[in-house]
Structure formats: structure tokens, C-alpha cells
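Fill in residues.
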């Protein structure tokens, strides 16, 4: 199923009946995916989800720009910066840190060269050496491939099982009509999405939801398209959020499946009700043994 949720506040552009525009979409069954090309200007606004905590008590939200490692370590936390030899190539962590672009510091691999690189702008900066009108806002993360086909890559690794909302925005930073870039999103090394970001300053949005387990990875890749890499710097915004764990059977909404919910279900057992209301947990309009089994299997579950 592919749609744009009415509750989503991703962009002022809103939702449309067609969510795959001039791009290749591939989503696993049962997962919601949006892949759209959007004209400028676009403001990145991740979906709003109920707050969830990690096992360590920290919010279960990962923001690439906010958590970008500035010379400390790579990988840092669940983020890693690196490159691949091509769109499908194996990911390699970049171990070196430095001023790879004017006004921006980033991770690179010295044995390969200053590019590919994943950088963060120290302040609002322009890159005259990259071509006319190439800019990167203060604090923004940019991915710069090389001219030989290598991709700049950001990887996020899951640490706790759960369902995750993944919002990513690729933005061209040139004001001229050059510097097209191939972009891709991979899950566990397999391509989910592929498209081309076309300057001037076009944006491509990816919005998806996945069930992930520890060790699974999401990768965001940028490589040169049908030109040199002169203007191929692309801004990448990513926010990943773990969604609340659902507890089928929490009829009264107090966050736990317990005897109170069981009492409510038994009170309407055998009756036809409004679908998904009262004790109708599976939404078939009848409170029966199927609903009872579902509730019992979730006794003690807490959100």
C-alpha cells in the first residue's frame, strides 16, 4: 500500500493521489512509502509521532544533523559516514576527518581522496569551487560523491527491535541547471528507492515505515549522475523515530492490557458491535473467541 497519511505534516505541499513521481518505488507489502519529487522551497518537517524512549531512557529519535559526529568518532552512536564504490557496492566507513570543502568539515578516506565525503557546514556557506550558486545552510549535512562513480553514504544501524518511521529529504544545493545526482536508499544492502535529484534546488522526499531488528541498516546514498561531480553536493536531512508499541486488547486506553479490558470484552461477548469498537479487536464487527484470544495473548502488554 502506498499513500500519504492524512496525519502526516511532512511538507506544506501536502499529499497527492500519486505519490511516486518520476522515480522508482519499491516497498514491501504492508509498509507505507512515499517517494516524491518536490519543487523548491521545501522545509523538512518529520512526522509527529507519540514520544517513545530507548532502553537507556533517551528519546527514540535519531536526527542526522543534530547527531553528526564532528571529528569525534565514526561510527558515532548509530550513525556512520562513509562511501561505496557504486550504488550497490558494500559500505565502507570513512576514518579520516578534515576540511574537505570550504567552510565545511567532514569524513573522508585519505587513501581514496577528499571525495566522496560526508560534511556538515560550520556556518551558512557557499562553494565557489563547485560551481555557481552551490550553498549549504549552517548545520546542514551534505553528501559529495567523486567523479569516478563512488557514492557518499550515510548509514544508520538499528539497536532495538520495533517499528520505525523514517523520513529523509535529499535537496540539490545549486541554483543552476547542472549537477544532477543519483540518490538511493538501501535497507540491509538492498535498494528500496532510486531517483535523480535535479538542480536547481529540487528536493526528493522519502517517507516510509519499517519493522526493524537489531543490526539492520538503512543507508542513504548520493552519487554523480550523467555529468561530472562539479555540483553534485546534495543536502540530506534524515529523522528516524521508533513508533509506540501497540497493545491489541487495551480497550480502555490506559496503556496496559489487563483484567479491566477483559471484563469489558466479556460484557459484549457474542454481540455485533460497531467494527473496532468495544471488545471487537480484529474489526470484524463481532465480539467473539478471536477477539478473546487476541486479548489473552497480550495480557500484561504495556505501551
Amino acid at each position: 500500500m502506498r499513500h500519504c497519511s492524512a496525519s502526516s505534516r511532512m511538507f506544506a505541499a501536502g499529499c497527492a493521489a500519486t505519490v511516486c513521481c518520476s522515480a522508482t518505488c519499491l516497498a514491501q507489502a504492508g509498509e507505507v512509502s512515499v517517494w516524491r519529487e518536490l519543487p523548491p522551497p521545501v522545509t523538512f518537517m518529520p512526522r509527529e509521532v507519540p514520544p517513545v524512549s530507548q532502553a537507556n531512557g533517551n528519546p527514540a529519535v535519531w536526527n542526522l544533523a543534530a547527531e553528526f559526529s564532528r571529528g569525534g568518532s565514526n561510527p558515532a552512536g548509530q550513525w556512520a559516514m562513509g562511501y561505496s564504490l557504486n550504488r550497490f557496492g558494500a559500505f565502507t566507513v570513512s576514518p579520516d576527518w578534515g576540511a574537505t570543502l570550504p567552510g565545511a568539515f567532514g569524513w573522508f578516506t585519505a587513501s581514496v581522496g577528499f571525495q566522496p565525503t560526508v560534511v556538515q557546514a560550520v556556518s551558512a556557506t557557499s562553494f565557489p569551487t563547485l560551481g555557481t550558486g552551490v550553498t549549504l545552510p549552517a548545520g546542514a549535512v551534505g553528501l559529495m560523491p567523486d567523479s569516478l562513480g563512488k557514492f557518499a553514504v550515510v548509514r544508520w544501524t538499528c539497536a532495538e527491535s520495533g517499528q520505525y518511521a523514517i523520513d529523509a529529504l535529499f535537496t540539490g544545493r545549486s541554483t543552476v541547471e547542472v549537477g544532477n545526482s543519483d540518490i538511493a536508499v538501501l535497507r540491509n544492502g538492498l535498494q528500496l528507492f532510486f531517483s535523480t535529484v535535479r538542480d536547481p534546488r529540487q528536493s526528493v522526499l522519502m517517507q516510509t515505515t519499517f519493522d526493524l531488528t537489531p543490526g539492520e541498516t538503512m543507508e542513504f546514498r548520493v552519487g554523480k549522475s550523467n555529468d561530472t561531480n562539479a555540483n553534485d553536493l546534495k543536502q540530506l536531512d534524515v529523522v528516524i523515530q521508533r513508533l509506540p508499541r501497540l497493545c491489541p486488547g487495551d480497550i480502555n486506553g490506559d496503556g496496559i492490557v489487563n483484567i479491566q479490558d477483559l471484563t469489558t470484552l466479556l460484557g459484549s461477548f457474542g454481540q455485533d458491535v460497531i467494527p473496532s469498537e468495544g471488545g471487537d479487536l480484529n474489526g470484524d464487527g463481532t465480539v467473539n473467541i478471536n477477539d478473546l484470544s487476541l486479548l489473552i495473548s497480550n495480557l500484561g502488554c504495556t505501551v
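The longest helix spans residues 259-267.
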